[in-house]
Design goal:
The complex is a heterodimer.
Chain A lengths: L1 H4 L1 H6 L2 H7 L12 H9 L25 H12 L7 H10 L4 H11 L5 H7 L14 H4 L1 H9 L3 H17 L15 H10 L21 H12 L6 H10 L2 H12 L12 H20 L29 H23 L13 E6 L4 H11 L3 E6 L8 E3 L7 E2 L9 E7 L23 H24 L18 E4 L13 E2 L3 H15 L8 E8 L22 H12 L1 H9 L9 E8 L4 E4 L8 H22 L11 H12 L16 E5 L7 E2 L4 E5 L9 H26 L12 E4 L3 E4 L5 E2 L4 H4 L8 E4 L3 H8 L6 H5 L4 E5 L6 E3 L6 E2 L10 E2 L2 H5 L9 E3 L5
Parallel strand pairs in A: 1-2, 1-8, 3-5, 5-7, 8-9, 11-13, 11-17, 17-18, 21-22
Antiparallel strand pairs in A: 3-4, 5-6, 9-10, 12-22, 14-15, 15-16, 18-19, 19-20
Helix pairs in contact in A: 6-17, 7-17, 11-16, 13-16, 18-23, 20-22, 23-24, 25-27
Chain B lengths: L1 H20 L4 H28 L5 E11 L2 E9 L1 H24 L6 H20 L3 H19 L6 H32 L5 H7 L10 H18 L8 H4 L5 H11 L3 H8 L1 H4 L3 H23 L4 H21 L3 H20 L4 H9 L18 H20 L4 H22 L2 H21 L2 H24 L4 H22 L4 H25 L15 H4 L1 H14 L6 H16 L4 H23 L9
Helix pairs in contact in B: 1-2, 1-4, 2-3, 3-4, 3-10, 3-15, 4-5, 5-6, 6-8, 6-25, 6-26, 8-11, 8-13, 10-15, 13-14, 13-17, 14-15, 18-20, 19-20, 20-21, 20-26, 21-22, 21-25, 21-26, 22-24, 22-25, 24-26
Classes of the chains: A alpha/beta, B mainly alpha.
Chain lengths: 870, 622
């Protein structure tokens, strides 16, 4: 250890080392600035954290400073990805009528710089099988690939297994029985320890040329390796980039751990620099082993000028015009479907009575249909939508949780900690490692393993057969989301202002609670006319055998079920002290109003109500039965996407099917999550209550009259843009190129170190969404429709800071629906543009949801519902 | 019972053919596979019931004789005893579960049809092994299982990594098949007609009468042990198994978790009388088991991915089975096999749950290990402090690199062959032509003289050339034509050598060549079609994705590949066996060159097939 820990000492006296390895280039203070270069390169790496908290984000966030089309073009030239769907797909949509001629004209008019638009329009229909292919890219055709094929050595095949083993064992969060790092040991020190202080050689670091390099710092190692392999400093940066992009998953993970060490539960100290030093050493070792002392450096390659260069025009966007036009036409056609429907006169609605119950849902597109059914089931139920953390950001530690997790969007860093407490004296828990039902997960000594295999192995035949042939039964020992300890409460009220050892405040003060509750109620415009019952419905999703489970939960809670937030919200809103403060601030919640927290399980279409002690009120039992009915209809609507699901008209059967899905170990699609998300509507429910939107809309409640200066709207936008925009763009890019931006098919995935998934044992980490989540997704950008005047929206946008980039560069479309006269305007960087809906565009209508969905297996345009409330 | 035996054997083949000829819709494939797995279940259950009712006999049934000439015969022979019954039961149970599982799991996956075809092929091979009555038939099943494993590892053929790992597994399989091929030949030699499994036991029961010489029997045992340890990923071949986990999870579960890894154990159970007769092979099985247990249980400790961990856990248990076998605990092994098969299959199927389980239920269990210093107090202080550290690092490096087995095998087996081949390829064309001419001259002279003794001596240079040609093909990376030609030439030289040694074998040689020549011609034609506008030598290392761009050509090339490697679809498979039995009954030395050529040819040609047919279509717009 001594000699490793003190490698810095060697750095101060590197005389003999320099003589051996830096013969030609002794000046280490050269023109190439490694740190600056790595900072520059790192922002192109995927920024997906460990899989336990899957947070949707724009896959191409690094290109957001460019316009959408320029951004994806540059990205494709770096990563070698596709940027659009194949031309034939768009042409087919046109033939099917989903892309309307009007939308195509709109798109041509918006993208044509003075060419003859008639010939352009004609050329769009020429068959073209190749233009959507990825361009020459640095990742696949750069200098490193050229060099490798010149050397006839596949460095990736040789180096990656070695590097990935070291990285995954170092970063591992608990799969391997023996952890590699000692307390606080850096990655580089770890590798050095194994390479220098072991009786067996660490392959390939034992090679003679490598050994002296191990005495240098990572920076010096990188410099020396680059100098020996690349030669010209001008190419260093590109070479490093290509090395990083040969395994983007691991590079990105290392960068995340480097910059956000708390992303891991067991902290690890690693940097890109250390990873690159190890990797370049490996490369150098293998090149030496294959080619000896004399080999051609990258700079000496014969056809260097022909390869794409970072210093050349790689970063200049080159947008394929025809595909761009088609893509925008598709998006516009889909967007127009909603815009046309909301401007059409609404069918006569029955006179408004005072609501019996109000339900507050998450903004999530999966709640869109449930709200529709709930309102249909009971006309005097009002529904609202807000980001699913309900404005309360905190760290939460449940009774059985090993560690606290953040219950708020990723952009917020919570300051408060909330813990769950048991009302009953704790029962001595059985030691978990000895539970027979979990035997197959646990580590055993060799002899115990032998004994168990001998004796209990046969039992697994029965268990396996049971699970496969009878999937509706619960997997024993796996808790479902809805099972919440009945006798627990959240510790919400703060008793002392003393922060915990981690610097968090334990709970909230009454004023803080009133701030949170009042803030949210104002956001959604619910400040008066409270119903006797307000149900706060969070959502989560239960699935089995699914490493991506976090991507199925609430996006506004950083990929967790939102139950703690709902419970906290209801508790706070029920608290007399909080209501008192709110009353002073002008929100008068009547004493008769009761807030009830609940959790909607989106995969099982089940709901559970929390913290119910008293006898059930009349409203609540009414609400429960309406909800039960709504859930079954919702399950049926979801089943239309499942080819293997029941195609009957029975709600019961459909519900049984979704239950089976969520607990089948062989079901890679417990639900289809946010597939086909497309719209986000910020406004009163009246705007959309009569619309069938095919579960494609994020719905946020907002009352245009209560927001005088756009303050409320700017708050909403700063949550909606990153959360909904992130979901939308992640789905879009994962769908457009599933092998580069997405994670590929789930089926061969192998869980690596609890960090992520990879293909096989020695593959790169896969980022993005697996193909099973996105295969039916129609990749279109999000359209946010705000029920507010343009001036106020402008006002609000001026307050959202950096998020304005999303709108200005067209990564999200935004439209204003002026209150009262329903005029429509599209936000452009250059100013608002009037949206004209063609008069001949008819908005389809249906009597009720079931009559619309029957027999449909693809996305359905927005319909008007003409009544027939069930 | 006979009918049921045949049904168990042929139903999977029927499934394979039905799926192959179906229209490829998921629904049809599902219907076929579900009904066939039911029918199989019915026949397996009734077979086992009948067998149980008749008192668990050691039942043998000869269907017909496929080929008969002189003292050589290849009967289609079935055999059922308790070992076979246990395996048959497991194969069916796991297969039925996997079929049901994959119905939903593979829904909408590209290659749905391909997947089901391959697992039916796999089960056909498995049943062939389990029910076979002689080593010859077992070998046929062994090859089928090998090829279907290879296809399933490379299931995601557009990515280079699965393809590389498929080749890695295939090379090990191929190498270890030598054991079985030679074993089959030796058992012909040693036991003549009595190579039926049913008669093996009785053969060894008479202590006065040794069935054959000590040396020959040892050699046969070693060959069998080699074949068994390759298939079961035992020392020193353990490294291929975790890397084979590239296909869809259920295929990894059925192949590498449950069934094919236990085939080595099955082979040893079947041939127990042969290798347990002497002490030395027993000690060998014991040491292989022990070494495997040590290496694999250590390697398991540092696997940071879940499938690798299950793989090493499984290898460890199979190592224990080897130990049990060497101690003669047959029934315990059977029980152990079934337990391990089901447990590992289940573990792999639910392996994606590990994240939710460890993080949500248990919290991270960031483990660590230390060498305890308390035991080392007798040591001087300076060593006491640094020695545990060094030992710990050493142990970790050993486990991390999985016992260095991969490099060990590569350095010992492949590197020397590759080096010889490369040297050969550098030799001047004219020199090669000269050698070829000399060889033809030699053969002509021999033919003219008709001297029997001379024939044998002429066969020596011919077979030497055969090996050289194979090695040259093995190291040939720039021209697929040269590889194909080399392999065909090497096979033909084998035929010539046999004919020189034994002129009566002309018919069998011709039979063998009727398999090889058409396969070769087909291959050359397909290659010329594929590489029409492509200069292969310019980019010899990219994957050309013919399977996706020209699926028809790729299938033809695959058939040609199977023909050339002597897969049991052409007469070449039978011919191979015949050649060996003819030639080496009088000249045992000949077994060595012909098997080297056999192994090396297979690998060379598989590599070309992968380079050409696998991969992602080059998506460059120019």
């Amino acid at each position: 250890m001594v000699m490793i820990d003190d490698y810095h000492r060697f750095v101060s006296l590197p005389v003999e080392v320099k003589n051996t390895v830096m013969t030609s280039h002794t000046d280490s203070a050269s023109g190439f600035d490694l740190d600056a270069s790595l900072d520059h390169l790192a922002h192109w790496l995927p920024s997906q954290g460990p899989i336990k908290d899957f947070i949707h984000h724009n896959t191409l966030h690094a290109f957001q400073h460019l316009s959408f089309h320029d951004g994806i073009s540059v990205a494709s030239k770096l990563f070698g990805a596709r940027s659009y769907l194949p031309m034939a797909d768009y042409q087919k949509l046109f033939q099917q009528g989903r892309i309307t001629p009007a939308a195509l004209d709109w798109s041509i008019a918006h993208n044509n710089d003075g060419d003859n638009s008639a010939t352009l329009r004609q050329s769009l229909f020429i068959e073209d099988k190749h233009s959507h292919y990825p361009p020459l890219s640095l990742a696949n055709h750069g200098i490193r690939s050229a060099w490798m094929s010149h050397l006839e050595t596949d460095l990736n095949a040789l180096v990656h297994p070695v590097l990935f083993r070291l990285l995954s064992n170092y970063l591992d969060q608990g799969i391997s029985r023996w952890a590699l790092p000692k307390n606080g040991e850096r990655f580089w020190d770890c590798v050095l320890r194994l390479a220098q202080n072991s009786l067996l050689p660490l392959y390939p670091f034992h090679i003679a040329v490598i050994r002296p390099l191990l005495k240098l710092t990572p920076e010096q190692v990188i410099a020396s390796c680059l100098q020996q392999m690349v030669g010209d400093e001008a190419l260093y940066e590109q070479y490093l980039l290509e090395v990083l992009l040969s395994h983007p998953g691991w590079s990105g993970m290392v960068r995340i751990v480097e910059t956000q060490p708390n992303a891991l539960l067991a902290r690890r100290l690693i940097s890109l620099k250390e990873m690159l030093a190890v990797e370049l050493l490996c490369e150098l070792a293998f090149v030496h082993k294959r080619k000896g002392e004399q080999f051609l450096t990258v700079t000496q390659l014969p056809n260097l000028a022909k390869t794409p260069l970072l210093t050349g025009d790689v970063l200049t966007p080159k947008v394929p015009l025809k595909l761009k036009i088609w893509h925008e036409a598709m998006e516009w056609a889909l967007h127009t479907e909603l815009l046309a429907a909301i401007t059409r006169p609404t069918p006569a609605t029955p006179e408004k009575t005072s609501p019996q119950a109000q339900a507050l849902f998450c903004i999530d597109d999966r709640e869109c249909s449930l709200r529709r059914y709930l309102e249909a089931a009971h006309p005097s139920i009002e529904t609202f939508g807000a980001a699913g953390f309900f404005g309360i950001d905190f760290l939460y530690q449940g009774l059985d949780d090993a560690y606290p997790v953040a219950q708020c969007p990723a952009v917020i860093t919570p300051k408060h900690l909330v813990t769950e407490h048991d009302d009953q004296p704790p029962v001595a828990k059985k030691p978990q490692t000895e539970q027979l039902s979990k035997l197959h997960f646990n580590a055993h000594s060799l002899w115990r393993g032998w004994l168990y295999t001998q004796t209990l192995g046969l039992g697994y035949a029965v268990r396996m057969a049971w699970n496969v042939f009878n999937p509706t039964s619960q997997i024993p020992g796996v808790k479902t989301l809805s099972e919440v300890e009945a006798h627990s409460h959240l510790h919400l009220l703060r008793e002392s202002d003393e922060p915990t050892s981690d610097g968090h405040l334990l709970g909230f003060s009454l004023t803080e609670m009133a701030d949170k509750i009042g803030g949210l109620l104002r956001n959604i415009g619910l400040t008066h006319n409270f119903a006797p019952l307000v149900v706060v419905v969070a959502h989560g999703s239960s699935s089995v055998n699914n490493p991506h489970f976090a991507a199925y939960d609430c996006g506004a809670c950083s990929g967790k079920p939102g139950a703690p937030n709902a419970r906290a919200f209801a508790w706070m809103a029920n608290h007399a002290g909080v209501r008192e403060i709110l009353r002073e601030r002008g929100i008068d919640i009547p004493d008769s109003t009761q807030f009830v927290p609940a959790l909607h399980n989106t995969s099982r279409d089940e709901i559970s109500y929390f913290d119910q002690t008293d006898a059930e009120s009349y409203q609540l039992s009414e609400f429960k039965s309406a909800m039960q009915h709504a859930l079954q209809r919702n399950a049926r609507e979801r089943c239309r996407w499942f080819e293997l699901g029941p195609q009957s008209h029975s709600n019961q059967e459909a519900h049984q099917h979704v239950l089976a899905r969520s607990s089948s170990i062989f079901e890679p699609r417990p639900e289809l999550n946010h597939s086909n998300n497309l719209y986000c509507i910020i406004g009163r429910r009246d705007l959309t209550r009569h619309l069938f939107m095919d579960r494609r809309a994020f719905l946020h409640s907002y009352h245009p009259d209560t927001d005088a200066d756009g303050e409320i709207l700017s708050k909403i936008l700063s949550a909606v843009i990153p959360v909904c925009g992130g979901i939308n763009l992640e789905y879009l890019f994962s769908r457009i190129d599933n092998s580069v931006y997405g994670a590929g098919t789930k089926l061969p995935h192998n869980v690596i170190g609890l960090l992520g998934v990879a293909n096989g044992v020695e593959g790169d980490l896969r980022t993005g969404l697996p193909s099973q989540m996105i295969e039916v997704h129609e990749p279109s950008r999000l359209l946010i429709v705000i029920e507010q005047s343009r001036a106020l929206i402008d006002n609000a946008i001026s307050k959202i800071g950096g998020l304005k980039e999303w709108l200005d560069n067209d990564w999200i479309r935004l439209a204003s629906c002026e209150p009262n006269h329903h005029g429509l305007f599209l936000y452009r960087k250059t100013g608002w543009e009037v949206i004209e809906i063609p008069n001949d565009l008819s908005v389809p209508s249906g009597k009720q949801s079931e009559s619309i969905i029957v027999g449909k297996t693809t996305t359905i345009p927005v319909h008007q519902l003409t009544g027939g409330q069930a | 019972m006979n009918g049921l035996l045949i049904a168990c054997q042929l139903l999977p083949l029927l499934g394979l053919l039905l799926i192959m000829t179906s229209n490829g819709s998921e629904k049809t494939i599902t219907t076929i596979s579900v009904w066939l797995s039911r029918a199989m279940g019915l026949s397996v259950a009734s077979l086992l019931a009948l067998w149980a009712v008749s008192g668990f006999p050691q039942y043998e049934y000869q269907w017909f004789t496929l080929y008969q000439q002189d003292d050589y015969s290849f009967p289609i022979l079935f055999y059922l005893d308790k070992v076979g019954a246990a395996y048959l039961f497991c194969v069916w149970t796991i297969f039925a579960i996997i079929v049901k599982y994959c119905r939903v799991y593979l829904h909408r996956e590209q290659g749905y049809k391909r997947f089901f075809q391959t697992i039916f092929g796999f089960v056909f091979g498995l049943n062939l092994i389990v029910l076979s009555g002689s080593i010859d038939m077992l070998f046929a099943g062994w090859e089928i299982v090998g090829i279907s494993s290879f296809l399933l590892i490379a299931f995601y053929r557009h990515r280079p990594q699965p393809v590389r790992n498929a080749l890695r597994a295939y090379t090990i399989y191929r190498f270890c098949d030598v054991g079985l091929l030679l074993g089959a030949w030796m058992s012909h030699l040693l036991f003549h007609e009595s190579q039926h499994f049913s008669e093996l036991a009785s053969l060894f029961q008479n202590p006065e009468f040794e069935p054959s010489g000590y040396a020959a029997l040892s050699l046969l045992s070693w060959l069998i042990i080699l074949a068994a340890s390759g298939k079961s990923a035992q020392f020193p071949f353990s490294f291929w198994l975790p890397r084979a986990m590239e296909g869809p999870t259920p295929s990894s579960a059925i192949f590498y978790g449950a069934l094919s890894i236990h085939l080595g154990v099955f082979l040893l159970l079947r041939t127990l009388p042969i290798w347990s007769y002497q002490l030395l092979p027993r000690v060998m099985v014991f040491s292989i088991g022990l070494l495997t247990v040590i290496v694999a249980s250590l390697s398991e400790k540092t696997q940071s991915n879940i499938k690798g961990q299950v793989a090493y856990a499984s290898i460890t248990q199979v190592g224990l089975m080897f130990i049990e076998l060497s101690l003669g605990l047959e029934s315990l092994v059977l029980l152990h096999f079934m337990g391990n098969a089901f447990l590992r299959c289940y573990q792999l199927l639910v392996s994606p749950s590990i994240v939710a389980h460890l993080l949500r239920v248990e919290g991270a269990v960031d483990s660590d290990f230390y060498v305890k210093t308390s035991h080392l107090e007798f040591l001087p202080i300076s060593i006491r402090d640094s020695l545990p550290e060094v030992l710990q690092n050493t142990l970790y490096v050993f486990a991390l690199q999985e016992g260095h087995l991969e490099r060990l095998v590569r350095n010992i087996l492949w590197e020397p062959l590759k080096r010889i081949g490369q040297t050969l390829n550098r030799i001047n064309v004219w020199l090669k032509a000269l050698v070829g001419l000399a060889l033809i001259g030699l053969v002509a002279v021999v033919m003219a003289t008709g001297n029997i003794d001379g024939n044998t001596y002429a066969a020596i240079p011919v077979s030497f050339c055969m090996v050289l040609v194979s090695l040259s093909a093995f190291s040939q990376k720039r021209s697929p034509f040269k590889v194909w030609n080399g392999v065909a030439l090497s096979s033909s030289l084998a035929g010539i050598a046999v004919w020189l040694m034994n002129p009566q074998a002309l018919n069998d040689v011709l039979l063998f060549l009727t398999g090889i020549i058409p396969a070769w011609l087909l291959g050359i034609w397909v290659l010329s079609r594929i590489l029409k506008q492509d200069n292969f030598a310019e980019n010899p290392f990219i994957y050309r994705a013919v399977a996706e761009t020209h699926p028809g050509l790729s299938l033809l090339l695959f058939l040609s590949f199977l023909g050339l490697v002597g897969f049991p679809i052409t007469p070449a498979f039978l011919g191979e066996d015949l050649l060996l039995s003819h030639a080496s009954s009088h000249h045992p030395w000949f077994a060595a060159p012909i098997t080297i050529a056999f192994v090396v040819n297979g690998i060379a040609i598989a590599r070309v097939f992968l380079r050409l047919c696998m991969g992602r279509p080059s998506e460059v717009c120019n």
